[in-house]
Amino acid sequence: MKKYQLLFLVLCITQFNFAQTEIKLNVASIMINQQEISVEQQISPYFSAELAGNFRYGKRNGFLNDFDGQDFKPKQSGSAVRLAIKFYFKPERQIGMYTGAYIRNASYKFKDGNNLKNYYTKKSAFGLIFGNKIHITENAVFDINLGYGKYFNYERERYTYSADTPRPAQYDNMDLFYSISFGYRFN
């Protein structure tokens, strides 16, 4: 029990010394009918933790719509949660280039109008994240990043069966995400 109390005390002290928090909106995700909101908390001069939530809705838009040469824009729904630990190369106010690791869990449903390509997918992934953050004003930030990883838990099932519906195997083990975010920093 004393170990947990000590850990709690260390976290509280860290929180008071490095109490820099950002709330960001990924504007790139809006273009493909997703909403992603993230909160980033500084945990030391070099490190921060980011928690992001992603929600999908409406018709799927984007560059991964080609499904065996066919245009595939199903209705989508679902959500994802991502936790990233970032390391900043310059510790001054955590601006500039960074790298880190992330873990992500997602659950999505896709429903095509002709009922031939309906499926759901559940996946968990881990990987690396690379990015750059700049100040726009004193409290406004611009953050752009790219993450690449592998699935360690992947489940996909069709609601309806169609013999001519292939499974896009080239994307089965790859996790890729990007964000172009604008945010506000609370000092």
List the helices and strands and how they pair.
Layout: H1 2-17, E1 21-26, H2 27-30, E2 34-42, E3 47-56, E4 66-67, E5 70-71, E6 75-88, E7 96-111, E8 119-135, E9 140-158, E10 174-186
Antiparallel strand pairs: 1-2, 1-10, 2-3, 3-6, 4-5, 6-7, 7-8, 8-9, 9-10
**What level of helicity do the residues show?**
10-25%
**CATH top level?**
Mainly Beta
CATH topology: Porin
The SSE order reads HEHEEEEEEEEE
Uncertain runs: 65-69
Judged by helices, strands and strand pairing, the structural class is: mainly beta
Continuous helix count: 2
Count the strands?
10
- The whole-angstrom Rg is 19 Å
Strand content: over 45%
Overall geometry comes to elongated
Could you say what the CATH architecture is?
Beta Barrel
Question: What composes the largest sheet?
Answer: 8 strands, antiparallel, barrel
